[in-house]
Amino acid sequence: MTNTGTEITKMGFWERNKKSNGSLLKKKIKAFSFSLARAILLFGMCFMILQPILNKISISFMAEEDLYNPMIITVPEHFTTANYELAAQFMNYWKTLGNTVVISLTIALLQIAVCTVVGYGFARFEFPLKKFWFACVILMIIIPPQTISTSLHLHFRYFDIFGIIEAVKGKSLNLRGSVLPYYLMSVGCMGLKNGLYIFMIRQFFRTIPKELEEAAYVDGCGTFRTFLKIMLPDAKPILTSCFLFSFVWQWTDSFYTNMFLGNISLLSMELGRIADKLGQYLTKILGVGGASVGYTNCLIATGTLMVIAPLLLIYLFAQKGFVESISSSGIKM
Amino acid sequence: MKKQSKVSGLQKRKAIAGYLFILPFILGFLTFMVKPLIQSLYMSFCQVDVSAGGFTMKFNGLANYIRAFRVDPDFVRLLTEEISRMFYNSLAIMVFSFFVALILNQKFKGRALVRAVFFLPVILSSGVIIGVETDNALLSSVQAAIENNNNGASITDAIQSILTVSGVGTRAFEKVFEIVDGIYDVAIASGIQIIIFLSGLQTISSNMYEAAKIEGCTAWESLWKITFPMISSLLLVNWIYTIIDFCMRTDNEVMKKIQEQMIVQINYGFASAMSWVYFIIVIAIIGVTSLIISKGVYYYD
Q1: Digit-coded pLDDT (tens) for B60-86
Q2: Which residue has the higher pLDDT, A324 or A88?
């Protein structure tokens, strides 16, 4: 048997093809053309997804006259980094970046900490009305935040806890423009997409075998200590990915930022103001109002790149953390 | 007897612990969700006047709803447009993400890289960036210029003209072409869905495919007889996720209209009424479609 095996490998491809009446060649061609088609398809789709980013990169290095030169499509003729300097100046980049990092980091940490506790509660305990409360979590995922934004707005504009503050100070607090409301909402699991995190974390905790928990109880570990010492270390991957999502989505979010954090300069806010600032800047320097459409867009593209650059860096290093844990948590209905 | 009471005592303790664990959620839900929700529902039946000192609500019945449906020139049109767009876009996203997940589940060189690229939009296409993207006038003007220069030489245009001339189901084709033209939007919106499908595909054991192959099943048959039923539960998850994701996008026309009424015109009552109409329609759609889909879902265990 081994002898014939080596003989076959020693035989040339065409000889073997002949022996199989041409079906080997057919098979090879089929497999090759399939993988070629797949490669072309995937390349096309990847290019399609990356194209806007690549486009922005090439535009961001162009001087203004390049933008209106029909001969120039990708490679700038007058290579310049002035756009970056200008965008950084308009956005007050480093300070804003610092603000954004601090806010996104603290909010993501807070949200994930609370969501972990809640998700664990839903996964590992039996209590009356559990189904009802979980339905509330699902409802929370479904309700668009815009539905309640009006009354949330008013809620924080005239903030009060059962009339206590009004009784003490004589009038209700105006919490708009401070960071506090959003932190409060994060503690109450009502931040951006928090229902989704609760859902994912619950799905994960449900997969941990009950025996592990029971063993801990038998050995005299309390409920809370079991959670901290036994369950949390296991949940590291899902928590990392939820944290990354929370961080990244908070970074680019405009809805909650607009509503609650209007007074703090954050990247996602400043990005929207670049166009106005450019207009003001040009008026101040040249005395003529308004920038050209092309140049405004060029600066917006540059600004967008500067906003997403840190995210791209994170994604480069933590790509696995984003992708793998979703697949491991086994989302099912 | 004593033992039994102890067991129930343990159960009670566990129930209390469970409630303690989900307490933050309950508190947050009641204060930041239920209360505003009720308030905004009430507001939608009111005329809300905001002044410097505070705000007053005057009950005026269904006036806001009547205004939304009868008086306002845009709302009904935007609503129907958005909902039909949601339907065929969601369908396109489902098909696309299923297809891509099937490809990405195969083994080939550079698979990790391709996966990373497909997942990139999840990070980048959220929130403010998508808003900036949509009103990027420069890119669109460049695109228009290119299209004019080519004189309609693009492949989709050519195929479109052939198919429309042949005259079968022109309107259905139009929708298909709209999706093909908007394939970028579809690709960008399907990152999470791809991952979910991919995770489902990886849980299917290869034994099944081998057994089917030995019995003489072709790859096409095993796709529909094995792969499809096995991930049909994820179909439901993805469908719901897609619809919700679509409703909450910042470039949604209905949402834009509501925001504009709320922030620029400070017309809280009308804005609340519109958002309630939209919300109830979306909930109804999710409920009905997921009921239909869940009838067809196959559970392996």
Answers
A1: 778 888 888 888 888 888 888 888 888
A2: A88
Judgement on whether residues A277 and A156 belong to the same structural domain of the protein: yes
Residue B83 CB partners (closer than 8 Å, separation 6+): B281, B285
Q: Does A307 touch chain B (CB under 8 A)?
A: yes
Architecture of domain B44-296: Orthogonal Bundle (1.10)
Residue in A124, A136, A187 nearest the CB of B24: A187
Judgement on whether residues A13 and A154 belong to the same structural domain of the protein: no
Q: Are the beta carbons of A140 and B33 separated by less than 8 Å?
A: yes
| Any domain includes A203 | no
* A contact residues 163-202, partner B, Cβ 8 Å cutoff: 184-185, 187-190, 198
Chain B closest CA to A168's CA: distance in Å?
19
The answer to whether residues A22 and A149 belong to one domain is no
The answer to whether A252 faces chain B, any CB pair under 8 Å, is yes
Identify the CA nearest to B39 among candidates A158, A87, A261: A158
Mean residue pLDDT across chain A: 79
Which of A118, A148, A302 best tests the B interface by mutation, with the highest count of B CBs <10 A?
Answer: A148
Shared-domain flag, residues A34 and A146: no
Q: Give the gap in angstroms from C-alpha A82 to the nearest C-alpha of chain B.
A: 19
Is residue A314 located within the same domain as residue A165?
yes
Predicted confidence (pLDDT) per residue in B98-139, tens digit: 999 999 888 888 888 888 888 888 877 665 566 555 555 555
Distance from CA of B168 to the nearest CA of A (A): 28
Residue A49 has its nearest CB partner, among B22, B26, B188, at: B188
ipTM for this prediction: 0.76
Per the structure, the complete domain to which residue A31 belongs is given by 1-38
Which of A2-6, A83-87, A107-111, B172-176 is predicted with the least confidence, judged by mean pLDDT?
A2-6
Contact B118 A121 (CB under 8 A): no
Q: Which residues of B touch A330 (CB under 8 A)?
A: 199, 203
In chain B, what are the domain boundaries? Answer: 1-35, 44-296
Counting the structural domains of chain A, the total is 2
> SS3 letters for chain B?
CHHHHHHHHHHHHHHHHHHHHHHHHHHHHHHHHHHHHHHHHHHCCEEEEECCCCEEEEECCCHHHHHHHHHCCCHHHHHHHHHHHHHHHHHHHHHHHHHHHHHHCCCCCCHHHHHHHHHHHHHHCCCHHHHHHHCCHHHHHHHHHHHHHHCCCCHHHHHHHHHHHHCCCHHHHHHHHHHHHCHHHHHHHCHHHHHHHHHHHHHCCHHHHHHHHHCCCCHHHHHHHHHHHHCHHHHHHHHHHHHHHHHCCCCCHHHHHHHHHHHHCCCHHHHHHHHHHHHHHHHHHHHHHHHHHHHHCCCCC
Co-location of A25 and A154 in the same domain: no
- Tell me, yes or no, whether A274 lies in a domain: yes
> Are B183 and A128 a contacting pair at CB < 8 A?
no
